[in-house]
Amino acid sequence: MSDDLTYLGGKLRLFVEAALGQGARVVIEEGQAHYVLHVMRAKAGDRLSLFNGSDGEWLAEVSETAKRTCTVECTQQIAPQSQVPDVWLVFAPVKKTPADYLTQKATELGVRVLQPVITRRTIVTRVNTERMRANAVEAAEQSGRVSVPEIREPLGFDKLLAAWPVERRILFCDEGGDAAPIAEALQKAPRGSWAVFTGPEGGFDPAERALLRSLPLVTPVSLGARILRADTAALAALAVWQSVCGDWH
Ligand code: SAH
Hints:
CATH superfamily of the largest domain: SPOUT methyltransferase, trefoil knot domain
Order of helices and strands: EEHEEEEHEHEEHEEHEHEH
Low-confidence stretches: none
Number of helices: 7
Oligomer: single chain
CATH class of the largest domain: Alpha Beta
Bound molecules: S-adenosyl-L-homocysteine
């Protein structure tokens, strides 16, 4: 009797780069093969599910196993390709919370893009985007998404804003105290593409705040009277955005 790995102790879902479709055969290798073969102890006939960010999610059956690889065959599509709502997280990386923690949580919260930004007061200037990508894949697998967020290389504040896409609104988390409450601001704001924007431990410097507030596509918002750690603010703002503008309905 083959075990259905997609339900055995929770879903075994794997993100793969390969094209998926009826009868498509995918060779699972390296770390993923180790996990399937030696952690999940998959045998021929067992089933799991695959997604690749463009072909939806496919049930697949293990057709053969070798020491370091296993081959699976797509048998039926179990979810169409779908996109998460169009929200990015632009965040100044902070010391105490590794960016890959924030990546995991933001992935679960349905961001499309994670863009680290280096502001004047950002202490952390190096970000391990490879680790972030691995965390994004893992969080996407666990959360049931059929897409993995894009992890971009860090950019300086001025450079990022100089090249900012004109149609994407910025939800500027401004702890300065005179911004509108986030839920009210979002309820009144136009729908469309957004980016949550949070600063470093030391906050944005006056010139950065002035530049952000000068841009018509920026909506400064308050997350209440308490000062939140940057990662708390990012996740809280994403939660409110999903609830008011996103897919939490
Ligand atoms: N300058 C602050 C610390 C900044 S907190 C201080 O007085 O210590 C790091 C970032 O989290 C801020 O730049 C802002 O983007 C966000 N943030 C924290 N608390 C917030 C709040 N109550 N409202 C809006 N944004 C907040």
